[in-house]
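Instructor's aside before we start: the two examples that follow are unrelated to each other. I chose them only because their records fit on one page, so don't look for a connection. First example below.
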Amino acid sequence: MGSTDNGLAWVTLATTDAYAVGALVLAHSLKAVNTRHKLHVLYTDGVSDEMTAQLCQVFDDHTKVNVLDSADAENLALINRPDLGVTFTKLHCWRLTQYSKCVFLDADTFVVKNCDELFERPEFSAAPDVGWPDIFNTGVFVFVPSEQTYRNLLDFALVYGSFDGGDQGLLNAYFSTWRESDATHRLPFTYNVTTVAIYGYAAALKRFAPNIKIIHFLGKQKPWALLYGDGVAGMAFVSDYHKQWYQLYANIVQQLLPPSSSVISSSTPSSLPSSSFSIIQHPLTSFENRPIVSHGATAIPGRAPAGGGYEAWEAGSPDYLGADSFANIQKAIEKALKGE
């Protein structure tokens, strides 16, 4: 089912090639559940030209935006996530005034069931944050584009900043009446099921799984961690939702990437298990070659970060013929899924 020009749109943001891949998977997950609404992507200079071309091909519309940094290094350091500063760029979504209402989805979300009914919700609607339910999580929210709201948010940020240094602290402070608002503003958790809940409350997951509509791969442990050794996260968690994300990536998104920059197979490994609610944990440090994957970025000779691994992949400089070759990636995935 194609999108309709009804003034409604799903919006996401890509600031790097890695998140551009997430955005592509998200877009195809929305198409897979037959959304009736348009898909709009915001992207920055951090996305390479070839990945930008893929975003423009898959999304109905696209807008290049400047990076807004909260410059609040102290608060960001408190939660050990200095990279969250660029998430202030998310505020640009309020400038999409060609739409009457939008739903913002982080690029690390994945839609598993049609949820077009979210557009019936008022601004500002969001689900409780799993870590502190009195505030909302900004991975999924309903908003009404407005240039005035955008300006007000910037002014508010300049005066009050953000209690966590990121967009979540700012938006919770600005939309401070959310907790006391009526139920229409509070989305059920099933519209923003964070991976923390998947790992920490298996019984609830099994009970409410049929109602889940959107998965949010919260934190640094992203679904693409299945494709490389993530030394930062230290552990790999493989759930059915990670497998669904990877299968969509391999079956559709990877096919869209230029052959010159594609380094993994066009299909998922045959060893992908199908059991429900399975969670596998293992130390990624056991991976001999710590393989990674490039998602369409062109390697720049001599510019690979000294740390290699994840950093090299993020910078678009993976070792295509060495540790980051498909053969090594395939071995690592199969080991992870077998729990070796």
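Example two begins here.
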Amino acid sequence: MEVTVLKKKKTTISKGKIKKTIKNVIGRPDPVYWPVTSEAERIEIESILNKYHINIPEFKKPSWDVLKNMPKNARPKPPPLKKVDGLIFGLSECRLFSQIKQLSALILEAEINPKAIVQPLIEVCINTQVPVICLPGLKKISASNFGISTSCLGVKSNFLPDLTESVIQISKHHKLPESNNVTGNKNEIANFEMTNSADNEKVPEIPNNVPSSFYLYRSDKKRVFVPTNDERATTIKKQFIGQDFIEFSKKLQKEKESKSYKKMVVKRITNNPNRGKDCNALK
């Protein structure tokens, strides 16, 4: 008699469908500047970079079974690569040269993800008037010509004039997005100027019928003694008005810089339905 074997139920986390969620995300109000080159422009830049091609020596790394028995100092290292004068590799190096204003042109990988990595560098280049272009396949071009796969390739000032001029001409075809500055409404802007509370105080009137005798006798609860209006009294009055507010007589009047801010945009995004496929592809 055959024994029936029940099938084991698989209780995995990813068994059910992915729940669709909608999130509110705060985004930038201004459009992102991303000047992607055309196919003809890409070929032009690639042909110029091919002129500075260096000989990349072949290096075959030994297996770990061989390396683990060798001391670190004796392990074979790849031969040093010849550097091209005027080229800057890497995001941090390009950012450093842009801050000291020694960067004449910048080429970025168009397929970089996420774009927010290089967005601060683009803004610095826009402020310093450095031409920027996004070249598709920059990593492969850089690896084949210079032996370094980079997503950010810069050109130093007064170096490689043909490459710099080509980047300048291509960047002219990609205009910068217009940024509309948000100016404050006069009705909405609150006036924070503090008024002098001493001016608002009512000075008690001096009675006309001042008694001729040396002593003043109080006939009612009203105030009889009135201080003299000398300069010393006014200065003390301006300096100290009450327990909650002390006024400074000598105020430094500085011109305040007018600043305008943009309102952030709220965007509604959904989850990625291909998240499971992307994770499996990385394995």
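Residues 39-51 form the longest helix (13 residues).
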